[in-house]
Amino acid sequence: MKNFRFKFDWVVLPAIGLALVLAIWSASSETWAGKLPSPGQTWDKSKLYITEPFAHRGVQDQGIVRFTLYSLILVAKGYALALLLGVPLGFCLGLSDFFTRTFDPIFQILRPVSPLAWLPLGLVLFHKNEPAAIFTIAICAMWPTVLNTAVGVRSIPQDYLNVARVLSLSRTRTLFSVLLPAALPYMFTGFRLSLGIAWLVIVAAEMLTGIPGVGNFLYQEYNSGIFEHILLCIITIGIVGFAMDRIMSIVENNLKRVFA
Amino acid sequence: MPLLELSKVCKGFGYNGSRVEVLKDINLEIEQGEFVAIVGYSGAGKSTLISMIAGLLAPDSGSLRLEGKPITRPGPDRGVVFQNYSLLPWKSVFGNIYLAVDQVFPDWTKANKTEHAERYIEMVNLTPARNKRPNELSGGMRQRVALARALAVEPRILLMDEPLGALDALTRATLQDEIERIWRRDQKTVVMITNDVDEGILLADRIVPLSHGPRATLGPSVEVNLPRPRDRKAMNHDPRFQKIRAEVIHYLLGSNPRIRRKTAPIPAFDVPLGLVREAV
Question: DSSP label at B216?
């Protein structure tokens, strides 16, 4: 009975949800949204890209996994820069009230700025597409890391700081043996949110710069009128984003268990 | 010259109108090798007092000296055992102790430091749990790790802030025996804060009562001149034990304004234990 219940919750219900969405999608493309390809058409036109995922038929015509990899590599670069900038900034915010009073208002103003607004500035600053895209990803994605690191550092229990003081740990050792591990669970929440944003930004960055990748493919196929591929890209982006979030959350939960 | 000397130490918290004087005119001298228990009410300022000796807090006035030198900051010449263990949860038993050893003896070889840390793990009987993390250990085991960490830096004086306060009665008794055994082995100078008079009598050479706050101060010392090792059960019937307990309780109850008004003077003998526990 319990086994049945499990299957029902985790297999049957999601399958019903998927079927419903496909039905609405089909019905829409039949009725009010004439240009929207039906699920069947989408599959027919996308088959080649899925069954030959690493194909390289030309710059604009590659397998979907290959395009995704291009995007992931670019995201990885931007994300790495976001963490490299975000963690030290977060530590400064968490450790120093002076620093917080000085810079927090500016951070609060920069934080909500859209990637679409940063990208042209990146192009002005770096002249080339890829550095501009990396800059945009980093500056948009780093805020959750900055803020969560700051919260993590501020909420380090006084006990741990007392231990560091009683043992007269040096500054570096206090940082690496006490502060960093104690703040890590919070920081990881920031890392996870940052990764989500980086993946959101990549599509916009690729569209505007023309760097090959899943986002660029989407926009190019819109221009070529192959709307089936837009849907293919949307589904791919969603699945990849979901997978990354799951992986990060598994790592995060394991960390929390160790640090509890 | 006493090893530790506190003279006219005062400490308060807060500003102006909401300021509370916690400790007032604390005078205390502790000799090399002495085991002193400071017994007092919860919230009287016991932890504040030990934090000042540890160097985590500065006094408002008065002076604290260790071997004649003023205490200005924490240092490895004072080993501290905190009530809530304060172990780093991401490090193993060995890792927690090694961190301390590595910091205090930087010139030693790695093998030396490892061996030293392991000797102290063995001393508190935790060798089988060497690689476990604190969250896999019971409260009593955690406090043993904290004790081993404090001792492993070979401090001049061991400061314990209600080290057994968070433990159940049985674990408490076991750890009391271990503290006594370790203390007898290397005759370390110890200051232990506790709210349990019996614990003080069982372990200490001298009990110093801390009066009820605010403006708590130390009462007259009571020497515990009972032979060691002290037997917990036999002590309950020993008139010398009862006399010491009565003296300490008498001072503590007398210092509490709420109790002072309500109760007649406490007879020097035969204080019912239950009542004493409740009051303190």
Answer: B
* A160 contacts on B by Cβ (under 8 Å): 86, 88
> If you measure CA to CA, which chain A residue comes closest to B81?
A163
Question: Which pLDDT score, from 0 to 100, does residue A254 have?
Answer: 83
Which of B37, B17, B19, B59 is closest to B221 using CA atoms? B37
Which pLDDT belongs to residue A146? 95
Contact at 8 Å (CB) between A218 and A207? yes
The stretches of chain A forming alpha helices (DSSP H) are 2-7, 13-30, 39-51, 64-95, 97-110, 115-126, 129-154, 158-166, 171-173, 180-209, 214-223, 227-259
Cβ under 8 Å to B: A residues 149-178: 159-160, 162-163, 165-170, 173, 177-178
pLDDT category of residue B280 using cuts at 50, 70 and 90: very low
Say yes or no: domain B4-77+157-279 is CATH 3.40.50.1580. Answer: no
Tell me the whole-structure pTM to 2 decimals: 0.77
Q: For chain B, which residues make up each domain, given as ranges?
A: 4-77+157-279, 88-154
Give the residue extent of every domain in chain A. Answer: 2-36, 50-259
Residues of B in contact with A258 (CB under 8 A): 89-90, 133
Nearest Cα to B183, choosing from B123, B138, B99?
B123
CA–CA distance, A169 with B153 (Å, rounded to integer): 13
Q: Do A167 and B153 touch (CB under 8 A)?
A: yes
The ipTM (two decimal places) reads 0.79
Report the percent of chain B where pLDDT is more than 90: 25
pLDDT at residue B262 greater than cutoff 60:
no
> Edge-to-edge strand order for the sheet containing B20-30?
B20-30, B4-13, B61-66, B69-70
Contacts for B40 with CB less than 8 Å, ≥ 6 apart: B46, B193, B195, B209, B210, B211, B212, B216, B252
What pLDDT score was predicted for residue B96?
A: 93
Under an 8 A CB cutoff, do B86 and A159 touch? Answer: yes
What is A50-259's CATH number, 1.20.1730.10, 3.90.550.10, 1.10.20.10, 1.10.3720.10? 1.10.3720.10
Type of residue at A145? T
Cβ contact, residue pair A173, B103, below 8 Å: yes
pLDDT per position as a tens digit, B159-180: 999 888 878 888 888 888 888 8
Q: How many CB atoms lie within 10 A of CB B61?
A: 11
| Interval B40-86: pLDDT, tens | 887 778 888 899 999 999 989 888 999 888 998 898 889 999 888 88
The pLDDT tens digits for A12-57 are: 888 999 999 999 988 888 888 778 888 888 888 887 777 777 777 7
Listed in sequence order, the residues at least 6 apart from B259 whose beta carbon sits closer than 8 Å to its beta carbon are: B253, B279
